[in-house]
Amino acid sequence: MDWGRLENDIKVAIASKQKISFLVGAGLSAESGIPTFRGKDGFWKVGSKNYQPEEIGTYRMFCLNSEEVWKWFLFRKTICKNAQPNEGHLALVEIEGLLNDQFALITQNVDGLHKKAGNSLERTYYVHGDLDFVRCGDECTSNLYPFPQGISDKKRGDRITEQEQKLLKCPNCGEDLRPHVLWFDETYNEKYYKFQTVRDIADNTALLFIIGTSGATYLPTEFVDRVSFFNGGIVDINLDDNNFTEFIKSYDKGYLVRDSSSQVLLKIVELMKKMITPGKK
Ligand code: APR
C-alpha cells in the first residue's frame, strides 16, 4: 500500500471540489459487536434448519411467516440498539467535519451507528434502509414510522408477545408493519433508498473509500463501476479479499488495504487533518 500516493490523491480530490465518498458495509460495525452478514454468525435457525440472510431477509419469507422474520429482525435490532459506535464510525464523523459538502456516506448498514456517532442525515445515504424505522408491509402508504416503543430486547429464539404483535401493526390499515430495509428479493428505488441520488454522487466522486463490505449487492457494485468509469480513485479497506479485489488490483487508481476499518480510518483522518483546517472549507 503506497500511502504517499494516496496522500497525493486525497489532495487532488479535495482540490477538485468533487465528492470524496465512503461506501460502507457490515465490516465497519463488526468492531461494535454486530455480526457481519457473510461471516459465521449471520445465519438464523428455525426449528432444526439454518437459514442464511438471503433466505430469511426476503419479502417472500415475510409473506409466508412474518412472525419469524420479525423475530430475526428484533434479535438483530436488539444487538444494534445496544451497540456503540467504534473508532471507525467516529473517524467518519471527523472526516465529515473536515470535508463538509464534499463528503458523502453511502451506507449499507441499517444499525443506526452513524447517527449515534454523529454523522449528519443530509450527507448519509441509507441505501439498504434503517432499522430505526418501520413501514406498512402492505404499502397502504409510503410513510415511515419510528420503530415502535414498548418492544423488549430479544435474544435468539425469544418469542414476540401478543402485546408486541399489536405494536407491529400498521397504524393506518392494521396490516403487519415491516422493518424499513431492502430485502434480498426487492430492488432499489429513489423513494426509500435514494437510488438515483446515490448514482449521481458516484458520477461526481473523485475518490472513493470502500469500507468493510464484500461487494455482494447491486448498488455498491454499480457505484464502483461508475466511479471508475469517471476515473476516480478507489481505496478498498477490508479484512478479506472480496468481489472488488480483482478489479482493484488491475485498476491504476486502485488501492488495497487489508486491515481493520477503524485503524485505517484513523490514519485517513490524520492525513486529511494535515491538509484541511476545520471550518476553513
Ligand atoms: N474491518 C474491515 N473490514 C472488515 C472488518 C473490520 N473490522 N470485519 C469484517 N470486515 C469485512 C469482511 O472482510 C467482509 O469483506 O467486511 C466485509 C463484510 O461483508 P458482508 O458480511 O458481506 O457485509 P456487507 O458487504 O455489508 O453486506 C452487504 O448484504 O446481507 C446484505 O443487506 C445486507 O447490507 C448487507 C449487504
From TrEMBL:
Q: Note the Pfam families from the entry.
A: SIR2
The enzyme's E.C. designation: 2.3.1.286
Residues of the Deacetylase sirtuin-type domain: 3-275
Does GTP-binding show up as a keyword for this record? Answer: no
Q: Which InterPro entries match?
A: DHS-like_NAD/FAD-binding_dom (IPR029035), NAD-dep_sirtuin_deacylases (IPR050134), Sirtuin (IPR003000), Sirtuin_cat_small_dom_sf (IPR026591), Ssirtuin_cat_dom (IPR026590)
Alphabetically list the UniProt keywords.
Answer: NAD, Transferase
Against PANTHER family, the record matches this protein to: NAD-DEPENDENT PROTEIN DEACYLASE SIRTUIN-5, MITOCHONDRIAL-RELATED
**Name by which UniProt lists this protein:** protein acetyllysine N-acetyltransferase
Q: Which organism is it from?
A: Mangrovivirga halotolerans
